[in-house]
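Can't paste images in this forum, so I'm doing it all in text. The chain is below; anyone willing to post the predicted structure tokens underneath?
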Amino acid sequence: MTNDKAAGRTTGDMHLIERAALERAMRLVVAGFGSAPDEVDAVVGNLIDANLTGHDSHGIGMLPRYAQAYLEGDLKPNTHARTVLDAGALLRLDGGAGFGQVIGREAMAMGIERARRHGTAVVALGNSHHLGRIGAWAEMAAAAGFVSLHFVNVIAPPIVAPFGGAKAGFGTNPFTAGVPLAGRAPLILDFATSMIAHGKTRVAYNKGQPVPEGCLIDSQGRPSTDPRWTMEEPYGAILAFGAHKGYGMAVLCELLGGALAAGLVGYRDDGSRKRILNGMLSVLVNPAALGETAAFEREALAFVQTLLDLPAAPGFDRVRVAGDPEREQRARRSAEGVPVDAASWQQILDAAASLGVDARRVQEAAGTR
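Text version of the structure:
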């Protein structure tokens, strides 16, 4: 298929949609949830930013899953974070199954305010619908000048196998850390504890492409590169990264982000519902409160710079640190457009229709007709 529009281009099985056009189109879809304008902006902005950074697994392709969760009554639009416990530098919050793009921002805003007041803050967040790309919350803390750590669990059907196991036992359980760096963009370390994010297997499945070797096992525990094992019954599982190391990190995220922060872990989910609930334990530290801000800024930047100055290995153009690839991709896609495979785009249009939104208006806004 070919289609040349001012706002988007379609070639073969891929749409390339300009950022502004994609924002207009996705606002139409998210408005179908009955969200207030501020919530529409928050959800659309967060999802598209994930696409811009190259993390399509956490971008607009999540909307069909969100729509199913909403229609099942498990996603609650226009819900805000509720304070369950306020102990100064320690907060426990309940997300009320609201959009994680809203709940996550509110949780970080409260954590930043407490870290500014007390020098540090611990925010235990439970019962939030999908928090999206967790790196966004580390970026928010870093922009305020704070170091942050985030341990996250997933209440959804298990999809990752424990080290040595042949069946899935938990979710992709991401870990994220952010460190502000004086004079340059922050270090943002953001990764699933699985070899590959579940959403990336969805993208591969929709594109009809295999995933890299060493990422998946089939329903019998045998290695496979076919993403169908994460999308169709009988299910296989994704493997944890780094064998026992990633497995240990995943369990830590389940215990801290789930049992401790949310009071709920993922193993009870029977897979019959499309909701994605997250628990997140966030720790924020204000470097200025430690009294050695200048030393921290000097030493952190000097160390990072020594890494960046090292020669590149064969096949690489230069050394980078965590967060650099996402920023480069964001600049590139902001200028060139966001690629969306045809299968994912059709799923988004179908989700819009299920929410009572005219799919033709979505196509017209995106320039894909």
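The two ends are 11 Å apart (CA to CA). Residues 100-118 form the longest helix (19 residues).
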